[in-house]
Write a structure and sequence with these properties.
Elements lengths: L1 E10 L2 E11 L4 E5 L6 H8 L7 E6 L2 E2 L5 H8 L2 E4 L11 H13 L3 H14 L15 H13 L5 E5 L7 H18 L2 E5 L12 E6 L2 E6 L1 H5 L4 H8 L11
Parallel strand pairs: 3-8, 3-9, 6-7, 7-8
Antiparallel strand pairs: 1-2, 1-4, 4-5, 9-10
Helix pairs in contact: 3-4, 3-5, 4-5, 5-6
């Protein structure tokens, strides 16, 4: 479903991605982990075409989005749902219209169909009866669920999660993780999750990719990563920093 080949990206004189290579299979859930400021969100923005690489290829469902025109890129983007860090809900409209937005803008469906889809997806994420509320009137955990509902309402083939549990307490964190697992089982999307939730994210995904100094230095199942003998992975996963590995810029 997703194939990244030798991806490079710099901003001025700062090289962020230095040759990222990664393949993600259809319907697979993959977590991208790594230190803060290490390029994870930059990597995610490339997947949906918000950034253009300096070098390399990004092949989405057989289409190299680095080589297509804007119209072709927009067609590929229709396969995506995105859960932004913080939710990125529209404060000026209610929950119903937030979730309905991609149905109106991308699919241009009739209002009776939109109502049915919005009602169903809000029920799916456990948010019955809040349609008329505004984002400021609901909790942080509920906003995360609304963001997930909006991402899933078009039934996308690929869902990108940019740190979906940032700022949540442990109970809400596990609630969102369980929701990702449940919706993935139901909808069968390919998922890429940027996460700092270690070791909790290991219970959610099929594989983990460790981004370090602009490259994917290790990929494996959660068990393989947890049992890794790679000193960089060991230091990062355990959080036991002894100064022998450079993690800070």
């Amino acid at each position: 479903m997703i194939k990244i080949i030798d991806l490079h990206k710099s901003f001025a004189d700062q090289q962020v991605l230095k040759g990222v290579n990664l393949e993600i299979a259809d319907k697979e859930l993959v977590a991208i982990i790594g230190q803060s400021g290490g390029g994870k969100s930059v990597f995610l923005r490339h997947l949906i075409g918000l950034l253009k690489p300096d070098k390399g290829s990004i092949i989405i469902d057989g289409v190299d989005i680095t080589k297509v025109n804007r119209k072709e890129l927009d067609l590929t983007r229709q396969k995506f749902g995105v859960v932004f860090q913080g939710g990125a809900l529209f404060d000026s409209v209610n929950i119903y219209d937030n979730v309905a937005f991609p149905l109106r803008e991308k699919l241009m469906l009739k209002e009776d169909v939109i109502k049915q889809k919005v009602t169903e997806i809000l029920e799916e994420v456990g948010l019955v009866g809040i349609e008329k509320k505004y984002p400021a009137e609901i909790s942080g955990g509920m906003r995360k669920r609304v963001a997930l509902a909006r991402a899933l309402v078009t039934e996308p083939k690929i869902v990108l999660f940019d740190e979906p549990t940032t700022g949540l307490d442990p109970i809400l964190l596990h609630s969102i993780h369980n929701l990702i697992i449940d919706t993935h089982k139901k909808y069968g999307f390919t998922g890429v999750i940027i996460s700092h939730d270690i070791p909790e994210i290991f219970d959610v995904v099929d594989r983990v990719a460790f981004l370090y100094k602009g490259k994917i230095v290790e990929v494996g199942t959660p068990k393989e990563i947890q049992n890794s003998t790679n000193p960089v992975s060991r230091h990062f996963i355990t959080g036991k920093y002894d100064g022998s590995i450079e993690f800070f810029n």
